[in-house]
Structure formats: C-alpha cells, structure tokens
Amino acid sequence: MGENQRKYMEMSGAASSSTRDRFLHGDLPFEDALKEVTGTDLDRSHLWHILEGLASERRTVAPVLSAHDAHILDGAAFVADPVAAASARVDRDIRMQNLVHESLSIPDAAERLGVTPARIRQLLAEHRLWAFASGRNRLLPPAQFTSTGQVPHLDRILPLLESGMHPLSVQALLTTPQQSLIVEGEAVSIVAWLTGCAGTDDDISQAADVFTSAQWESA
Predict the structure, then answer these.
(1) DSSP states of 58-80 as a string?
(2) Burial of 163 (0-12, 13-18, 19+ CB in 10 A)
C-alpha cells in the first residue's frame, strides 16, 4: 500500500479497522500500528524510552490501599485505571518526542534568525529565547519562531517564564487559544496574538498577563 493511499484511508476512517485487525492478528508490529493510527514514526529506541518511563512510574506508585481505604475511594467513584495511566504516559512521551524532533538546535536557530550561535546563547541567557535540555544539547521549540525569524514581541514575554516548567506545558501555553485574547471574535493563542498585534505596550501587557496567569493557574 502506498503512503498516499494509506493517508487517504486514515482520513476516511477505513484504516482504523484494518490496522486493528492486522495488529490483533499479529501481522502488524506495534511501532507500525502506532504510525498508522497516530501518524507518529517512533523507532524502537524511542519506544524503549517510553517503556522505561512506564516501569519507573510503576515502581514509584503508592503502596496498595487497605480494604477500608479502597472501599472509601470506590464509594467516591475513584477508579484505578492502569490502561488510562499508561495511555497518558505514552501520549505524553510521544508528544515530547515530536517536540524534540521539531525543535531547533542552536546552530539552526542562529541560521533562522540570521545571527551567530554565540548570539543565540546570549539571548537564551537573557531569557529572550527559550530552550530545554535534551541529552547534552539545548533545543529551541518551534512555537517561538516564524518561517523567517522570531515571533514578534515574544522576547518581551519570555523573561516572565517560570523556571522548571515542562517543555510541553510551555509549548501549549504559547500555542493554545486563550479566551481573553480575541481577534475578530475568535480566541487566539499568545503566539498568534503577538504575531498579529500592533506591538503597543497595551498589546504586550495583555499577552503578558495571560502568560503569567496561566502559569500561576498551572502551578
């Protein structure tokens, strides 16, 4: 089956049943099923990282509840769902792997902005760009860049970023529509707001307020 045909089948919903049947019958490896269902292409080293994360979480879970405590939680509709927990972990790790793949290295960011790598390191030190550690490298997520440079005015917002926030949380904070940022009747993200605004102090302050408030709410 060609790639274009596969994409068409996925869009039409026909592939999901076929993928399920082939996977359950042992005709489709897990990583291939993952790619067909989610569009995410992870090799086995990435899958092993996910498995290690699941094992780590299993080792650090709380001790088994007493029968009395379990009865109380059951009565309050608290249901332990290991499948949901594992799915959430896998989903988070897949999104993190995607973010790693999409992010720019320091030399790539320098080329994007038309400056030297030393200048990128200076902007990072001044918190006017944002990076996260990935192994021995620092990667700059794509939300802060346009196709030709940095998102306008974002360098005035990023210094407000709390240290220690997970990269996925920061990426979502910048790219998720915010109800208090309205353009032509539609909620827009901080990035979209900054890209389209005139850049007045009031415009920047409005985006900054959303940025800091969202961080405070998630703390």
Answers:
(1) HHTSPPPPPHHHHHHHHHTT---
(2) exposed
Element (H, E) at 187: strand 186-188
**140: nearest Cα among 157, 122, 165, 120:** 120
Total number of residues shown for the chain:
219
Q: Nearest-CA neighbor of 165 among 215, 93, 96, 212?
A: 215
In single-letter form, the type of residue at position 65 comes to: L
The whole-model pTM stands at 0.65
| pLDDT tens per residue across span 108-129 | 999 999 999 999 999 999 999 9
Q: What is the pLDDT of residues 67-81, one digit of tens each?
A: 544 444 455 555 455
Query: Which conformational region is residue 68 in: left (phi greater than 0), alpha (psi within -120 to 50 degrees), or beta?
Result: alpha
CA distance readout (Å), 112 to 87, 107, 129: 36, 9, 13
